[in-house]
Write a structure and sequence with these properties.
Elements (H helix, E strand, L loop, with lengths): L1 H9 L27 H6 L10 H10 L2 H10 L6 H6 L5 H10 L7 H11 L4 E4 L6 H16 L22 E4 L3 H14 L7 E4 L5 H11 L3 E4 L1 H9 L12 E4 L2 H6 L3 H10 L9 E6 L4 H10 L5 E4 L8 H4 L2 E6 L5 H18 L7 E5 L3 H13 L13 E5 L5 H13 L3 E5 L14 E5 L5 H8 L10 E7 H4 L2 H5 L4 E3 L14 E2 L2 H14 L4 H14 L6 H15 L7 E2 L1 H5 L11 E2 L64 E2 L33
Parallel strand pairs: 1-6, 1-7, 2-4, 2-5, 3-4, 5-6, 8-13, 8-14, 9-11, 9-12, 10-11, 12-13, 15-18, 16-17
Helix pairs in contact: 1-13, 7-8, 8-9, 11-13, 16-22, 17-22, 17-23
């Protein structure tokens, strides 16, 4: 009956207070910092000015009397080694052994050292800490120890033994996360910690794994439930789910500022009403946040017990990641230069890291503004491999992640990228905040982010935990004019070291032998990318660049990408129904109205006839190059005084296209031909799979 009543209350809409002044008087319980943890004081002063209230600072000063301080001096000694948790009797030996031996962790991070001692004593904690600082273990350890203390039999795994059956209403801890990816990441870390115990960890997230998650909870039971606000509320309020938490003794808010920024306040209120009252069933609440906004303060006042601790691990003089990471901006000649320039950058940086032992392995996250672009570039990078599977980007492996993949695929991709020594992770913004990928040396953004905040979140994936990193932003001439207005004062330094970035791929040019080889490799790979993927990217640009006022220039650039960058005979057709939804494009010329034919053969090539709208890698024909007419890469036209062996400085090709060093007189690489039949059918493309 009680549970039914709670569910009914949860369905009543709640009003989200925007400022503390909007709260009812009963909610204005003063926040008291009875004593600041000495671990935090030892490293730097814990600032309370972020709470925007002089009364709060007064409370903090008045709350610690001499007796309390003496107790702190004797008890709250700094713990810096995980092994100390066992010797002091704070954490069960099974869990400590998993951390030190199983996970290979020895020394705590700053946020772990500053919070664990108090949290393990049952004190409520609010900690201001950046992502990637080890806060997940900081809140998981107290949760696990709390469960083991209540039920010691859970300290050991029940495999092979008959023990009490865990049910769906045996939830002891609830961990609330703003995103599916972060929830899965937390759950994976928790499963590592409970590996040798009988504690069961489950997730409650939306998407394709929603039913599977529910089935696991009902069949296997659950002690720790990690989930997103909406899904958690749905499960707890559903009387048919049988998921309840009458014995809840721990509640964790991770990324509290993001939970509130994304509008989850109503769901959080609903969840709170579905949980046992703290007055009837005492529980510990742990809250971690990168910032202390007014809404975070409100949440703290409504959830934390009197006498909680505030720990801050971000110093006033500490520069944010986006202010201290070196950031390069590369201005592209056009959209068609983006992929060759990215290929050139990755190849160069990989080579440098392999040849210089002092440099860490190349590990890059490459961000795109749409899932369609992620898929296209993944197909392109996979197509760079030769018949033996060898890629010019080795030893870096390529991974992809975006919102259209299943949760299982995303989790697997993220875990594989974390474990790899050197890799290229092609991603949409699903990984831009909250997720920690160790060892990322480069963050490369292909085009302007949707906002300044998103740019900052992306760049924050590198230079974590005291390591160094580098940022790169690729923008075409059209986007370059908007950088200052969209991103503000970012320390972006122009970088013109990428030769392919500024090439006019519609005209003849002199390029080095290395770049001629690079472009030849690229054009052979791009022909293997399915036409359907190119069409999807083309269509996605209508949304990605909806902000751009010069629609005619945008369409011209898109058409040039299709023909000169992708080697298509003509730009993709735009359906009349789509154009009707885009009134700002109605007077733009250059759009081909119609419907794209289905393309199931996996490429742009018409294999049955051996004919291609634009032949790639064609030798010795009358037309070639990225240009409309004329030969392409290095077709046997040597500079005065040159030799058939090629010139280090490259040479100018006859007609249009790009000349690199020729391998022999009258031979070389031809580019995208406007028309013509190839000397033979193109090499069959290996089946593309999206396994990781």
């Amino acid at each position: 009956m009680r549970r039914a009543f709670q569910r009914c209350i949860a369905t009543v809409p709640q009003i989200r207070p925007s400022i503390i002044g909007d709260l009812p008087i009963s909610a204005h319980r003063p926040i008291r910092f009875n004593s600041i943890t000495r671990a935090a004081i030892a490293s730097h002063t814990v600032a309370t000015r972020d709470f925007h209230s002089t009364s709060l600072r007064k409370d903090a000063a008045e709350s610690a009397d001499g007796r309390d301080q003496a107790k702190e001096d004797s008890d709250a000694q700094v713990v810096s080694k995980f092994a100390e948790l066992e010797t002091r009797g704070l954490v069960h030996p099974t869990v400590v052994n998993t951390i030190t031996r199983g996970m290979g962790l020895e020394t705590m991070t700053e946020v772990q050292s500053a919070t664990l001692h108090e949290a393990l004593r049952g004190t409520d904690i609010i900690a201001q800490a950046k992502t990637g600082t080890g806060k997940t273990i900081a809140f998981l350890l107290p949760v696990l120890q709390n469960i083991i203390e209540k039920d010691p039999y859970l300290a050991k795994s029940s495999h092979g033994r008959r023990g009490p059956r865990t049910t769906a209403d045996d939830i002891r801890a609830l961990i609330i996360s703003p995103t599916r990816e972060l929830a899965e990441q937390i759950a994976d870390e928790a499963r590592k910690l409970v590996k040798s115990t009988g504690i069961i960890v489950q997730t409650a997230v939306g998407g394709t794994m929603k039913r599977q998650g529910m089935r696991d909870i009902q069949q296997q039971g659950c002690h720790i439930l990690v989930g997103t606000p909406g899904r958690l509320k749905d499960i707890l309020s559903d009387p048919y789910s049988r998921v309840e938490a009458p014995d809840l003794n721990a509640l964790v808010f991770d990324e509290a500022d993001r939970l509130l920024d994304q509008g989850f306040w109503p769901e959080i209120q609903g969840i709170m009403q579905l949980l046992p009252s703290p007055a009837q069933k005492p529980r510990q609440t742990l809250m971690f946040s990168a910032t202390m906004s007014q809404d975070v303060i409100t949440l703290a006042r409504q959830t934390l017990k009197k006498g909680f601790k505030f720990v801050r691990t971000i110093r006033d003089d500490e520069a944010p990641t986006h202010a201290r990471v070196p950031q390069n901006i590369v201005k592209l000649k056009g959209f068609e230069n983006a992929a060759p320039a990215l290929f050139e950058l990755c190849q160069r940086e990989i080579m440098q890291s392999e040849n210089d032992p002092s440099k860490p392995p190349f590990k890059a996250m490459v961000y795109f503004n749409s899932a369609a672009e992620v898929s296209l570039y993944y197909s392109l990078f996979r197509a760079l491999e030769d018949r033996s599977g060898r890629s010019p980007l080795l030893p870096a492996k390529t991974f992809l992640i975006h919102s259209r993949l299943s949760q299982m695929q995303r989790t697997r991709a993220a875990e594989d990228f974390k474990r790899c020594r050197s890799g290229i992770f092609l991603s949409s913004d699903v990984t831009a905040r909250g997720m920690d990928f160790p060892g990322v040396t480069h963050v490369i953004q292909m085009g302007l982010a949707t906002s300044r905040e998103m740019y900052i979140h992306r760049i924050g994936r590198t230079a974590r935990a005291g390591r160094e990193g580098t940022g790169w932003l690729f923008v075409d001439e059209m986007e370059a004019r908007e950088v200052r207005g969209k991103l503000g004062e970012m320390p972006l330094v122009p970088n013109d070291t990428l030769e392919t970035a500024r090439l006019d791929l519609t005209q003849a040019a002199d390029i080095s032998a290395e770049q001629g080889e690079l472009l030849a490799t690229y054009q052979k790979a791009i022909q293997q990318v399915p036409r359907g993927e190119k069409v999807k990217v083309f269509m996605s640009f209508f949304g990605t660049f909806a902000w751009h006022p010069r629609k005619q220039q945008l369409v011209d650039n898109m058409n040039r990408l299709a023909t000169y960058g992708w080697g298509m005979e003509e730009p993709p057709m735009v359906s009349p129904s789509l154009l009707r939804r885009l009134p700002s494009f109605r007077n733009v010329t250059g759009l081909r109205l119609g419907h794209e034919p289905s393309d199931d053969d996996g490429s742009d090539m018409r294999r049955s006839s051996g004919r291609s709208p634009r032949d790639f890698g064609r030798r010795g024909g009358p037309a070639g190059g990225f240009g409309r007419v004329g030969p392409g890469f290095g077709r046997g036209v040597l500079p005065p005084g040159g030799s058939s062996g090629g010139s280090p400085g490259g040479f100018r090709s006859e007609g249009t296209g790009y000349g690199g060093s020729s391998r022999s007189s009258g031979n070389g690489y031809s580019g995208f031909s406007r028309s013509g039949r190839s000397d033979g059918p193109p090499r069959e493309r290996r089946a593309q799979s999206y396994d990781y």
